[in-house]
């Protein structure tokens, strides 16, 4: 599929071909859901911890007589039913991460790109360059382009002035191509790819594109 290329000044800069094998899939919500869940679980710290009865600081002395008190036969105040006692079956540090194959994660990324393309929310930008490096000037350019919520993906390296100017604009994220991910694509309204990012994705999925061409 062909799409127009624009500049930050909202001027036309030609056309570019987007591979159907990458941007033309029929998006599946189940694949996207599994991938977003994988990302969210992977980033959970898993440092939650509650003290059990072996860790609380209480006396180990028997606090009442075995018989004659009219109460149950307790031996230790660290039991969970007492105030200051240990937590029964409390959370312990652990990893929440689940497993997804590398092949599945690559497929999910293509489905996320296809979902944006199908919705008409992919924009191809000629280049990200901000000579002034000022947030106010870049914000005006985004307003002209109609970008209120956008993920901007550049090539292998970000333009320092552009990244610095964009980081203070709400709902705008700027990442190098190495940082592209399904969660950030879906959480923003627009996906803005530079020509360098499109080329990098073509290289990344070259084998997929080749197999699709052979199948035709």
UniProtKB/TrEMBL annotation:
Xref: Gene3D superfamilies: 3.40.1370.10
InterPro entries, alphabetized: Ribosomal_uL4, Ribosomal_uL4-like, Ribosomal_uL4_dom_sf
Organism: Hyphomicrobium nitrativorans NL23
Stated name of the protein: Large ribosomal subunit protein uL4
Residue numbers spanned by region Disordered: 46-94
GO molecular function, one term: structural constituent of ribosome
GO biological process, one term: translation
Superkingdom of the organism of origin: Bacteria
Protein purpose: Forms part of the polypeptide exit tunnel.
SUPFAM superfamilies in UniProt: Ribosomal protein L4 (SSF52166)
């Amino acid at each position: 599929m062909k799409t127009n290329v624009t500049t930050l000044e909202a001027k036309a800069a030609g056309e570019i071909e987007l591979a159907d094998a990458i941007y033309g899939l029929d998006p599946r919500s189940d694949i996207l859901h599994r991938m977003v869940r994988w990302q969210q679980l992977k980033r959970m710290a898993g440092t939650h911890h509650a003290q059990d009865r072996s860790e609380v600081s209480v006396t180990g002395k028997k606090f009442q007589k075995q018989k004659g008190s009219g109460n149950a036969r307790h031996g230790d105040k660290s039991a969970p039913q007492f105030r200051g006692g240990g937590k029964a079956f409390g959370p312990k540090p652990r990893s929440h991460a689940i497993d997804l194959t590398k092949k599945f994660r690559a497929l999910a990324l293509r489905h996320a790109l296809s979902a944006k393309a199908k919705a008409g929310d992919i924009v191809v930008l000629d280049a990200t360059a901000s000579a002034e490096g000022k947030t106010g000037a870049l914000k005006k350019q985004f307003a002209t382009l109609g970008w209120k919520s956008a993920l901007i993906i550049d090539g292998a390296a970000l333009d320092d002035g552009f990244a610095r100017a964009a980081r203070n604009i709400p709902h705008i994220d700027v990442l190098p191509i190495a940082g592209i991910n399904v969660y950030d694509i879906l959480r923003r309204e627009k996906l803005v790819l530079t020509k360098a990012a499109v080329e990098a994705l073509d290289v990344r999925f070259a084998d997929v594109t080749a197999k699709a061409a052979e199948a035709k």
